[in-house]
Design a protein that fits this description.
heterodimer; A: two-stranded antiparallel sheet; elongated; B: alpha/beta; five-stranded parallel beta sheet; 4Fe4S_Fe-S-bd (chain A); 4Fe-4S_dom (chain A)
Chain lengths: ~160, ~400
C-alpha cells in the first residue's frame, strides 16, 4: 500500500515548530514521503516522551521506504509474470531504444531502466527514469500497464 | 539470440548467459520461458521398460517390438516438438496405417482449419504490429497464456503506421466472461465487454451492422464499429473462450467476420498456447487435407478418431505419446484406459503418463537441446537454435522406430 503524506501528518506533533526547517508539519510530511527529509529531522518527535507511541507507529509505517528505489518505485517480483508491458511502454525506452524495447523486442541499449532477468522484472538503471532527480515528472506508465500490480510507487 | 519454445509466441530475442555448461541468466524471456531454460536439468526422464530403468538401447528395442506387433496404433502429442519430428511421426503413422492426433482437437485446431481453408482472413503478427488499430482479444487471457503477446506483437509496440504508441494509435477491446488480467489493461481508448454468451454478442454486432440498436452494450458496440472503420486494418485474437462459446458452430462467427470485412479490414489470428500446434495442423493439411484426428487406415478424419474417443471406445492397442502428458491433462475416465494398452512415452521430462507406460524414451527439449523449425500461431516459420546439443533427440528416436515399419 502506498504511503500518503496525510497518514504521516496525522502522527506528527502538528505544532508547526519549524525545527526541521519546514514551515509546517504538513510540508514536512510531503518531504518525508518524497524522501527529501528523514523522519529523524523532526526532533520533538524523538526527544519528547509524549510522542513515543506516535514515533513507533511512524517508524513502522515508513519501513517500506527503505526497500524502495530512489524514485519511490517498488517491484514485487513474486507477482511479476514477465509480460514486459512496462518495458515497452516506458517513454524513456521508446525515445532512446526505438528499435529495441520501443518496438517490443528486448532492450538493445546498454543501460535500460528495466530488463527481464530470469523471467522477472529487474530495475537496472533507475537514474534514467523520468521520476529521478530534482526536475522529475511523476510518470506512472509502467504501473498503469501492470495488471498484476507488481509495480507500485510509494506516493500512490 | 535464442528462440523460446514455451508458447506459440516463439519469441526469438532471448539472450542467455551460460556458465560451465549451465544456464546462469536468461534475459528478455517471460517467467514461463525463463523457467524452461533455467530448469532444463530438472525432472528429466530416464529410459524405462515396464516401469524399471533400462538402458536406452533396451528401451528402443522394446518400443520397436511393441510397434511391430501393434495392429491398431495411435500417435498423440507432438505440439511441443519441431516440424522435422512431426514429419517423421506422420510418416510413421502413414506407414503403419495408424491414427494420429494432437492437442489441437480440443485446443484451437478448428480456427487453424478455417484459416487454412481460407474461410477467415488472417495476417501475421508483424503486420499487426505495423498496422493494426483495433485489437480485440476474444475469450483469451493473453496476459497469462501468452505473456509477451501484447508487449511484443500487438498492443504496446510501436511500428510502421503506428508510431505514437498504444495511447493514441491503438484501440483495445477485451471480450471475456470475467474481468481477467488482460481486461484490466482496457483503460483509455479501450473497451471491456463482460459477456454471458458469445452468440448473444455476435447477434448484437449483427444488429448494430444492420443499423439497429444492439440488444446489449448499446453504446460500446457502435463505438467499436466506428473505431474499426477509422482504420483498414483491425485484428481479432480468438482464444479458447471463443471456441467453446460458439459450441462447435462456427458459421455465426464467420458470417460476422464477412460482414465486418465488407466495411473495413478485420483479420483473425488464433491466440493459442502450444508452441507448434499450428505446425502439426499445417503439415497434416498439406498431406491429407485434414488437420487432426486422422486415420491413415481409413484415409479420413472424424470425431471418433480423436485420441480421447479412441481410448473411450477401446479402439487402439498401442499409443505413442510424444511430448505431452495425457494422464495429467485428459479427463480421468478417458486417461485411465491408458493403463490397459501399451504406451510408449517419448518426452524429455518425467511425466505422470511415463510412470505407467510400458516404455519411456527420454528425448531432448526443443529450443534448448535440439534445433529445428516451428510455426507460430500466425503461420510464420521460426528457426530454433539449440543452446546445448544433445545426442538423443526426438528425430533420432523416431528414426529408429521407423526402421521396423
Amino acid at each position: 500500500m502506498p504511503i500518503t503524506p496525510m497518514e504521516i501528518y496525522k502522527l506528527l506533533p502538528k505544532t508547526n515548530c519549524k525545527k526541521c526547517g519546514e514551515q509546517t508539519c504538513m510540508a514536512f510530511a510531503f518531504k518525508v514521503v518524497n524522501r527529501d527529509k528523514q523522519i529523524e529531522e523532526c526532533t520533538p518527535l524523538f526527544e519528547e516522551e509524549k510522542y513515543t507511541k506516535q514515533k513507533e507507529q511512524l517508524l513502522e509505517m515508513l519501513e517500506p521506504l527503505k526497500e524502495a528505489s530512489e524514485t519511490g518505485l517498488i517491484v514485487d517480483e513474486s507477482k511479476c509474470t514477465g509480460c514486459a508491458n512496462c518495458i515497452v511502454v516506458c517513454p524513456v525506452h521508446a525515445a532512446e531504444d526505438a528499435y529495441g524495447s520501443g518496438s517490443g523486442f528486448g532492450p538493445k541499449i546498454d543501460d535500460p531502466i528495466y530488463r527481464l532477468e530470469n523471467g522477472v522484472l529487474k530495475i537496472i538503471n533507475v537514474q534514467r527514469c523520468r521520476r529521478y532527480g530534482k526536475n522529475r515528472i511523476l510518470c506512472v506508465a509502467c504501473r498503469e500497464n501492470c495488471p498484476s500490480d507488481a509495480i507500485s510507487f510509494l506516493e500512490g | 539470440m535464442y528462440t523460446c519454445a514455451g508458447c506459440s509466441c516463439l519469441c526469438d530475442d532471448i539472450e542467455i548467459e551460460t556458465e560451465k555448461g549451465d544456464v546462469k541468466t536468461v534475459f528478455n524471456a517471460c517467467r514461463r520461458g525463463a523457467g524452461i531454460f533455467l530448469n532444463y536439468r530438472l525432472s528429466r526422464a530416464e529410459p524405462m521398460v515396464d516401469g524399471k530403468s533400462a538402458d536406452f538401447e533396451q528401451a528402443i528395442e522394446k518400443a520397436q517390438e511393441l510397434i511391430q506387433s501393434s495392429e491398431k496404433l495411435a500417435i498423440y502429442g507432438l505440439d511441443t516438438t519441431t516440424l522435422e519430428v512431426q514429419e517423421l511421426a506422420i510418416k510413421l503413422a502413414e506407414k503403419k496405417g495408424a491414427y494420429i492426433d494432437d492437442n489441437s482437437t480440443f485446443c484451437l485446431g478448428d480456427f487453424v482449419e478455417t484459416i487454412l481453408k481460407g474461410e477467415l482472413p488472417s495476417t501475421t503478427l508483424e503486420e499487426v504490429k505495423n498496422n493494426a488499430y483495433v485489437i480485440t482479444y476474444w475469450g483469451s487471457d493473453a496476459y497469462h497464456s501468452l505473456s509477451r503477446h501484447m508487449s511484443r506483437y500487438t498492443y504496446y509496440p510501436r511500428g510502421g503506421k503506428r508510431q505514437r504508441g498504444y495511447e493514441e494509435d491503438r484501440f483495445l477491446v477485451v471480450i471475456d466472461v470475467r474481468k481477467t488480467h488482460t481486461a484490466k489493461l482496457a483503460k483509455k481508448n479501450a473497451r471491456f465487454l463482460q459477456i454471458r454468451d458469445d452468440l448473444e454478442l455476435i447477434e448484437a454486432f449483427n444488429q448494430a451492422l444492420d443499423g439497429k440498436a444492439p440488444s446489449i452494450f448499446v453504446n460500446d458496440i457502435p463505438r467499436i464499429l466506428k473505431e474499426m472503420e477509422k482504420a483498414d486494418f483491425n485484428v481479432i485474437f480468438g482464444g479458447l473462450g471463443l471456441k467453446y462459446g460458439l459450441k462447435g458452430n462456427y458459421d455465426p462467427f464467420k458470417n460476422l467476420m464477412a460482414r465486418l470485412n465488407e466495411r473495413t479490414g478485420v483479420y483473425f489470428i488464433p491466440a493459442g498456447c502450444h508452441p507448434n500446434m499450428r505446425g502439426f495442423n499445417e503439415l497434416m493439411f498439406e498431406k491429407t487435407g485434414e488437420i487432426n484426428r486422422y486415420s491413415f487406415r481409413e484415409q479420413r478424419s472424424s470425431d471418433e478418431f480423436a485420441f480421447h474417443k479412441l481410448l473411450e471406445n477401446d479402439a487402439i492397442d498401442t499409443a505413442v505419446i510424444i511430448g505431452t502428458d495425457p494422464l495429467n491433462s485428459l479427463p480421468f475416465e478417458y486417461a485411465k484406459k491408458l493403463a490397459k494398452i501399451n504406451t510408449i512415452v517419448i518426452d524429455p521430462r518425467e511425466t505422470f503418463t511415463g510412470r505407467f507406460a510400458k516404455v519411456v524414451l527420454p528425448s531432448a527439449i526443443a529450443g534448448v537441446e535440439t534445433g529445428g523449425t516451428m510455426i507460430r500461431s500466425d503461420g510464420v516459420r521460426v528457426e530454433l537454435k539449440p543452446l546445448f546439443e544433445k545426442e538423443i533427440n526426438d528425430e533420432r528416436i523416431l528414426g529408429r522406430l521407423l526402421e521396423v515399419v
